[in-house]
Specification:
With 102 residues, the chain is α+β, with helices and mostly antiparallel strands. Helices cover 22% and strands 36% of the residues. It has helices spanning 44-48, 50-53, 68-73, 94-100; strands at 2-9, 12-21, 24-30, 34-38, 58-62, 78-79. A six-stranded mixed beta sheet has the order 1-2-3-4-5-6. Strand 3 and strand 4 (34-38) form a beta hairpin. The radius of gyration is 13 Å and the shape is globular.
Length: 102
């Protein structure tokens, strides 16, 4: 099942997506600038593949989260190089990162 909902973070609307997969869930919270996600996906590819590096994808990843709320409150374990232009840092919460791209 795929669930897509608006998500208000300090008065700013983002899009929360939950994809139920066998034995795991894929979680993302996004706006038109960037997104955060669970560890079911990897951001390293956007820092390592030249063709993808050109896209300047703004993304961060948190590990060990099972819900959208956990994703908001978990520290980001990895971020793309492009996200640093928005002040993102490894260790900041998902909520902190999202507010920097609002």
């Amino acid at each position: 099942m795929i669930t897509v909902n608006p998500l208000e973070v300090d008065g700013i609307i983002f899009t929360a997506v939950r994809v139920e997969l066998p034995k795991t869930n894929l979680l993302t919270i996004s706006n038109d600038i960037g997104y955060i996600m669970c560890a079911a996906l990897d951001v390293d590819i956007f820092n390592e593949v030249p063709k993808l590096m050109e896209r300047n994808v703004i993304a961060g990843r948190a590990m060990g989260v099972r819900t959208i709320d956990e994703l908001l409150n978990a520290p980001l374990q990895k971020i793309t190089d492009a996200s640093k232009a928005y002040g993102w840092e490894v260790g900041m919460t998902g909520k902190e990162a999202l507010l920097k791209i609002s």
